[in-house]
Amino acid sequence: MSEKRSNFPLPLSSVTGAGTRKPAAPAPVATPQTATQNARTSQVQTRQAPPPAPRPVAPGTPQPVQPQQTMQRSELAATEAPRRAMAAYVARLGVKDGQVLAALETVPRHMFIESALSSQAYADVSLPIGHNQTISQPYIVARMIELLRGSGQPLRRVLEIGTGCGYQAAVLSCVAQEVYSIERIKPLHELAKANLRPLRIANLRLQYGDGMLGLPQVAPFDGIILAAAGLEVPRALLEQLAIGARLVAPVGAQVQHLQRITRIGKSEWTSETLEACHFVPLRPGIV
Ligand code: SAH
């Protein structure tokens, strides 16, 4: 891990520091037996209370996901063991934040992927969601949110760039008071809306647009997460961080590393280059 202090804009060199690649971990085998075993060893003890409703927002800001149908209780119960096993597996990979692990255990990942792939819903793998995009691997979702939370202080307003199917946004909504998520591909924005509707998440707002521009009408944010990798972090996003807030992003092209940037003053940011990762590219404009 390297730590750098720099004035805005962050230099490209800040993305090329050392980072150690996490050894590829085998996907967990989610048999009922191992799921029960994992559940017993899971560090997850508690479930989060539902977060408070977000403050009223000005006209022109993204609208909340409207509940239209609720999720079947039986469907949730049926996936409880694999969800626990997945969270326990991610804990074994090194994610320590109990609230993040609890969030991972809470969100039904199978609801974000097409049914043909549902047997892999609770394996620690990324999966295709259409339009050449993927749902991220649960480990990296958890790790990025853990990095965003740092020493575990509550997150108030968080922005995600790259909604995709909406999974990470749902996990974020368990650990932050208000979550905003932007997607540039219209059919994926619609897919995320449809996936999230049955979950009735009151503190999550989806926006169709170019996330590289951020959401200035809602800024400043206490945290920003990018789910797609650019060669550098867009300037607009750095400017939309509150002072003291963090941004976590994959940075690079063929070789990518997670980068955590903290805004420490009006025009001062620090940057840490962390583990290697692999994300789809961050692209400008809308489709
Ligand atoms: N958050 C997702 C991962 C989605 S994959 C999850 O829960 O697993 C990354 C997404 O970023 C893709 O859907 C892609 O279309 C989107 N993306 C790339 N560039 C973007 C941009 N400039 N603004 C918004 N979304 C972007």
TrEMBL record:
Entry's transmembrane regions: none
Disordered, as annotated region: 1-79
Active site feature: S136
Annotated Pro residues bias: 49-65
SUPFAM superfamilies, per database record: S-adenosyl-L-methionine-dependent methyltransferases
InterPro entries on file: PCMT, SAM-dependent_MTases_sf
Amino acid composition bias (Low complexity), ranges on this chain: 23-48, 66-79
Main location: cytoplasm
Annotated PROSITE patterns: PCMT
Catalytic activity: [protein]-L-isoaspartate + S-adenosyl-L-methionine = [protein]-L-isoaspartate alpha-methyl ester + S-adenosyl-L-homocysteine
CDD domains noted in UniProt: AdoMet_MTases (cd02440)
Domain of life, per lineage: Bacteria
Biological-process GO terms, alphabetical: methylation
EC number(s) reported in the record: 2.1.1.77
Pfam families, per the entry: PCMT
Subcellular location: Cytoplasm
Enzyme class: transferase
Keyword vocabulary terms for this entry: Cytoplasm, Methyltransferase, S-adenosyl-L-methionine, Transferase
Protein family (similarity comment): Belongs to the methyltransferase superfamily. L-isoaspartyl/D-aspartyl protein methyltransferase family.
Function, in words: Catalyzes the methyl esterification of L-isoaspartyl residues in peptides and proteins that result from spontaneous decomposition of normal L-aspartyl and L-asparaginyl residues. It plays a role in the repair and/or degradation of damaged proteins.
Protein name: Protein-L-isoaspartate O-methyltransferase
Species, as recorded: Massilia norwichensis
